[in-house]
């Protein structure tokens, strides 16, 4: 385990410049983006299931729940942005610093459950969309969703801005599709406006309302937003932080209102088409798709519906992956390869999805979608309560803590969410005890888990209220306490430097850097690895044209450097550079290894991997990366 404390999403941290923009509009545009990545979680396939169920059963009567959820989301996301901007910590990192290791680990497990539940909705939604648009069987659709791992990594390699543009493009596809749907549906505006008056007709409405809240205010989005705002490089002054908070709030307001439009459009569509025609039990996305054409009289309606569903599933799964990385790195200070992290999360979601499709058929996917959103809602309190404590602390926020009106509003929202969840859990357990033939499993498993969750909620609620969190950071790794600055300031002297080359344009940079570090007193060894299939099999016994050509080219490098007065030798290796370079370096007494690029980037990085990452973990000398 890498026990160093990392910056949140280190590969994109502070990569977008916001200073130096004279126009207020340009300054605002520099900040726009993070909330759009967050907002896609508010319009994912899980939302579709709860919105369709609510609209078909209760018409427009639950649209007030969507509006309330959106207001909650805007407040909570603004608190996350404040935490990230002011403290430079995401919610998971802040929790690791605040709580003891056991509580921190339990919070991590709960966050992971929320992410898997969210990813489960994306897997099913994507599979349904592919089935509706192309007729692909659900089992195959669920299976191939693992491939979007590569899309995420490709976008991250291209930079945060390009990923944001891609996500915003998907959002406009979703929004545009529902503009068309609304044109076909022609909702009753009088009944629609009446739906903003709060009411809960029965216990089923409560279950769906909680599902809507869980589908809208998602736990993983709180972790995600507190990290993504740190991709902006801001001036760490009072004025700079105030400006960042203002622009991030505008970003959140625009993005989340777009998400509210999409969610409301889905519920309105279900109410105007299904509830109006007496179809109160339409809860499956597939059924909704099948009924749109005969009820609306247009073949375009179901097509736009399926396109929007695929766009929603794909955009949400990308941001869910980032949230998983943030949670693992923040809570555990554990950093693994992003594609490994992605596949772990995706496999945990694919297994229950496949089980449902195979054993319960496609009709079970809608119920699984709603259940996944209820699970998300149950996790909310464990993320919201620490968040409110962190942003309310004067010691931690250095003058940027939230004031009493906002604190009261935040705790009011928390009480509503936790209270509704508590009632749901009580009703469900009571129902199970009444109907179960053998309730021993409920008494031994379910009830202790519910009591444990309640105890944890009470603990994190009062732990930081009674005694404020310490402002000093907990030491995550041992530190050198008596470092002698004079000794550390002495210039480094490298006598034997190894320089791998691959005959690409990057060689010039790595050789130049090495020569500047060592000067004419050092000895240099140019290393080139022959990667042909023959070299992989026969090693140094291979004798082919490419080996001869590579050796001749390597000697040309040597001759040119010799002519300039540098002491240079060459070394030819055979096989995989990731394995052979460390083998050559570790077998000799080099002082320094200078690594440059490898001549490919982007998609090829995903397919072949980077030599730099593999080599630097396998050598036992300092590595200078150009």
What does this structure look like?
About 4% of the residues have low confidence. Helix 22 links the parallel strand 3 and strand 4. The chain contains 27 helices and seven strands. The protein is mainly α and 626 residues long. It has a five-stranded parallel sheet with strand order 5-4-3-6-7. It has a two-stranded parallel sheet with strand order 1-2. The chain starts with 15 loop residues before the first strand and ends with a strand. The protein folds into two domains: 352 residues, Orthogonal Bundle (Hydantoin permease); 130 residues, Rossmann fold (3-Layer(aba) Sandwich).
SS content category: mainly alpha
- Helical content band: 55-70%
Rg (CA only): 28 Å
**Which architecture name of the largest domain does CATH use?**
Orthogonal Bundle
**DSSP, total strands:** 7
> What top-tier CATH class of the largest domain fits best?
Mainly Alpha
Low-pLDDT runs: 471-483, 600-609
Average predicted confidence as pLDDT: 79
Percentage of residues in DSSP E strands: 5-15%
CATH fold-level name of the largest domain: Hydantoin permease
Organism: Aequorivita soesokkakensis
Protein name: Divalent metal cation transporter MntH
Transmembrane segments: 28-43, 63-85, 105-128, 134-156, 165-185, 205-224, 245-274, 300-323, 343-361, 373-392, 404-420, 440-462
Family: Belongs to the NRAMP family.
């Amino acid at each position: 385990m890498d026990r160093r404390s990392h910056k949140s999403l280190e590969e994109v941290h502070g990569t977008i410049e916001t200073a130096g923009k004279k126009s207020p509009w340009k300054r605002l545009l520099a900040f726009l983006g993070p909330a759009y990545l967050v907002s896609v979680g508010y319009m994912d396939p899980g939302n579709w299931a709860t919105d369709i169920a609510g609209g078909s059963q209760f018409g427009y009567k639950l649209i007030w729940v969507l509006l309330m959820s959106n207001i909650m989301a805007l407040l909570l996301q603004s608190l996350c942005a404040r935490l990230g901007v002011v403290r430079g910590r995401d919610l998971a990192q802040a929790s690791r610093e605040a709580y003891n290791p056991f509580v921190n680990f339990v919070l991590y497990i709960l966050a992971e459950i929320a992410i898997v539940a969210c990813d489960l909705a994306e897997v099913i939604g994507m599979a349904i969309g592919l089935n509706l648009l192309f007729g692909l069987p659900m089992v195959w659709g669920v299976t191939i969703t693992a491939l979007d791992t590569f899309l995420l990594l490709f976008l991250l390699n291209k930079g945060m801005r390009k990923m944001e543009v891609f996500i915003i493009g998907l959002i406009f596809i979703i929004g545009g599709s529902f503009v068309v749907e609304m044109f076909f549906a022609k909702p009753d505006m009088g009944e629609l406006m009446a739906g903003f008056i709060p009411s809960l007709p029965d216990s089923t409405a409560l279950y769906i309302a909680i599902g809507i809240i869980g589908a809208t205010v998602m736990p993983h989005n709180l972790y995600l937003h507190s990290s993504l705002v740190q991709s902006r490089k801001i001036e760490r002054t009072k004025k700079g932080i105030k400006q960042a908070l203002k622009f991030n709030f505008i970003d959140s307001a625009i993005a989340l209102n777009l998400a509210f439009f999409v969610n409301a459009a889905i519920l309105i569509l279900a109410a105007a088409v299904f509830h109006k025609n007496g179809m109160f039990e339409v809860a499956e996305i597939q059924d909704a798709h099948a009924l749109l054409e005969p009820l609306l009289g247009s073949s375009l309606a179901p097509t736009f519906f399926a396109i929007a569903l695929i766009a929603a599933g794909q955009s949400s799964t990308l941001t869910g992956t980032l949230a998983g990385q943030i949670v693992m790195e923040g809570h555990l200070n554990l950093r693994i390869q992003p594609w490994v992290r992605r596949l772990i999360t995706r496999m945990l979601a694919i297994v229950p999805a496949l089980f449902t499709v195979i054993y319960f058929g496609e009709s079970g996917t809608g119920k699984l979608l709603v259940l996944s959103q209820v699970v998300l809602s149950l996790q909310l309190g464990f993320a919201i309560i620490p968040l409110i404590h962190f942003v309310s602390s004067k010691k931690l926020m250095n003058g940027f803590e939230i004031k009493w009106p906002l604190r009261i509003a935040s705790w009011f929202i928390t009480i509503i969410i936790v209270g509704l969840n508590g009632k749901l859990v009580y009703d469900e357990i009571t129902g199970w005890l009444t109907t179960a033939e053998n309730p021993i499993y409920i008494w031994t498993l379910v009830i202790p888990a519910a009591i444990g969750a309640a105890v944890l909620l009470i603990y994190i609620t009062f732990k930081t209220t009674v005694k404020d969190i310490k402002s000093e950071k907990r030491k995550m790794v041992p530190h050198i306490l008596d470092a002698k600055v004079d000794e550390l300031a002495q210039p480094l002297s490298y006598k034997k430097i190894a320089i791998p080359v691959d005959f690409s344009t990057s060689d010039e940079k790595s050789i130049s850097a090495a020569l500047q570090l060592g000067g004419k007193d050092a000895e240099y060894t140019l290393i080139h690895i022959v990667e042909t299939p023959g070299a992989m099999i026969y090693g140094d016994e291979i004798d082919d044209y490419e080996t001869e050509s590579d050796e001749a080219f390597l000697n040309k490098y040597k001759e040119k450097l010799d002519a300039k007065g540098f002491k240079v030798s060459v070394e030819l290796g055979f096989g995989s550079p990731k394995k052979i370079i460390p083998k050559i370096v570790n077998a000799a007494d080099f002082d320094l290894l200078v690594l440059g690029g490898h001549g490919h980037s982007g998609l090829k990085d995903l397919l072949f991997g980077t030599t730099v990452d593999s080599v630097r973990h396998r050598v036992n000398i300092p590595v200078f990366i150009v």
